[in-house]
Amino acid sequence: MILVDTGPLIALFDPRDARHVRCREILESIRTPLQTTLPVLTEAFHILSPDSRGSDSLREFVLLGGTSVWFFDAPSLERAFELMEVYRDHPMDLADASLIAAAEALGTRKVFTIDRRDFGTYRVKRGHRHYPVEMIP
After folding, report:
1. What are the DSSP calls for 71-103, one per residue?
2. How many domains would you assign to the chain?
3. DSSP H or E stretch at residue 54
4. Residues in CB range of 66: below 8 A, 6 or more apart
5. pTM here?
């Protein structure tokens, strides 16, 4: 399982994005199921603009199973809010917090992101230990 952040979704569905080609190449090489979160999709649709061709393509990508969507349960939402507090000195938005909460709930550390600065500081909790995020690529 690989979780997908907002940046690659924008790059994949906006051909004008400087990372468009690279993100498409990475997507084509991935053989593991992809999953994202509702806050990530909300952010992506906002940035792409709801009436854009990119937004249409992203909706189609999700509906055709290009990525599944992970939904918060109450404990995971609480964990995301807790993470936002933990990373208060390096502000974490809800989209990023949702990915770390999903990683913990789903037992993965892999995130397809272009945000290396933020995800380089985040840690995924497993029991009493905290592990770095494995960034794709």
Report:
1. ---HHHHHHHHHHHHHTTTS---HHHHHHHHHH
2. 1
3. helix 53-63
4. 34
5. 0.94
